[in-house]
Design a protein that fits this description.
By secondary structure, this protein is of the alpha/beta class. It has helices at residues 31-42, 57-67, 77-87, 98-108, 118-144, 150-179, 182-192, 199-208, 217-224, 247-252, 254-263, 265-276, 281-302, and strands at 4-9, 13-18, 23-28, 48-52, 72-75, 232-233, 236-237. It has 13 helices and seven strands. Strand 6 (232-233) and strand 7 form a beta hairpin. Helix 9 crosses helix 13 (281-302) and helix 11 crosses helix 12 (265-276).
Length: 311
């Protein structure tokens, strides 16, 4: 079996281990530490280096490894936790360590993560910042419903006004970045042609889902966490479930899906057919989201704009 490496990343240090069982040590999460780690990993000529998506801590190291020509895969931590439980190799602290990640990499061979350009990283950062600001604004607006004190109400209104300005700044910056890139501008225009998908949602998809049009229908649905997962054992047929994937993007696509159910003829027919067969409304909504995603994926793959004849 070819060698694979697992990396357990934290804020200030990262641990490196190989599938063969060798620990390559703990390194400071600094430029010097990353250089030392690269030298150690290169001696093994790894087929794959795997780390978990840890809220952004992994991004700098993944970018550094890509820049040095090393094959990197950034995976959902849930997949590694499930693998650890299945193999009975949970650490005493329930923290998934580098050795477990290395075994996961060697046995399941996760897909490599394409390197992201500095522009791509900035687009992702802008969409993430917009999401943070939107959440803060929603929280402040909810507090306004219970603000009986005039001073507190005024404070909440002032904060909401400031957040509105900051959201507008971020949205303008994201729009300018996409407009400056002909390829991204074309993708945004094609996605915006879909009934239910507005320009802002289209820009978010372009910034945060570069795999759109590159993966097949099953892969793109699994990536967003809207692919049904079987839960069968013997004669027992379990309920199909969805989940995992990129939760933030799935949340972003929820409201556009509801709009599409009302105004997109293809998605509306699909939703109504599911309801008529007795599917619960939320199940039908999630299935409609998957249908909408698959249609957009096909459009991107074929360089198409929206066509009401899409099945």
């Amino acid at each position: 079996m070819t060698e694979t490496i697992g990396i357990d990343v934290s804020k200030s240090v990262f641990d490196v281990a190989a599938f063969s069982g060798d620990s390559l040590g703990r390194y400071d999460y600094t430029s010097a530490g990353m250089r030392q780690a690269v030298r150690a990993m290169r001696r093994l000529k790894p087929e794959r280096i795997v780390m978990e998506a840890t809220g952004g801590y992994e991004a700098r190291l993944a970018r550094y490894l890509h820049e040095h020509g090393l094959p990197v895969a950034v995976v959902n931590p849930r997949r590694v936790r499930d693998f650890a439980r299945a193999t009975g190799r949970m650490a005493k602290t329930d923290k998934i360590d580098a050795a477990i990640i290395a075994r996961f990499a060697g046995m399941l061979d996760p897909r490599p993560t394409p390197p992201i350009s500095p522009e791509g990283l900035r687009r992702k950062a802008l969409t993430a910042r917009r999401r943070q600001l939107m959440e803060m604004r929603t929280a402040e607006k909810n507090r306004m419903d219970h603000a009986d004190d005039r001073l507190i109400a005024g404070s909440l209104k002032a904060v909401v006004k400031t957040l509105d300005k900051e959201i507008a700044k971020v949205e303008t910056a994201l729009e300018e970045m996409i407009e400056a890139d002909e390829t991204l501008r074309d993708k945004t225009a094609r996605l915006s042609s879909v009934p239910g998908i507005g320009p802002l949602t289209a820009r978010t998809l372009v910034a945060e889902l570069p795999e759109l049009g590159e993966y097949n229908r099953r892969q793109i649905a699994a990536l967003l966490g809207v692919a049904p997962i079987n839960r069968d054992s013997g004669v027992f047929k379990g309920k199909r479930m969805t989940g995992g994937g990129r939760r933030e993007l799935r949340t972003q696509l929820y409201m556009p899906t509801l709009v599409a159910i009302q105004h997109n003829p293809v998605i509306r027919r699909y939703y109504q057919r599911l309801i008529q067969t007795g599917k619960p409304k939320m199940t039908a909504v999630v299935a409609s989201m998957r249908k909408l995603l698959v249609v957009m994926n096909t459009m991107m793959k074929n360089n198409d704009v929206w066509n009401p004849k899409f099945a």
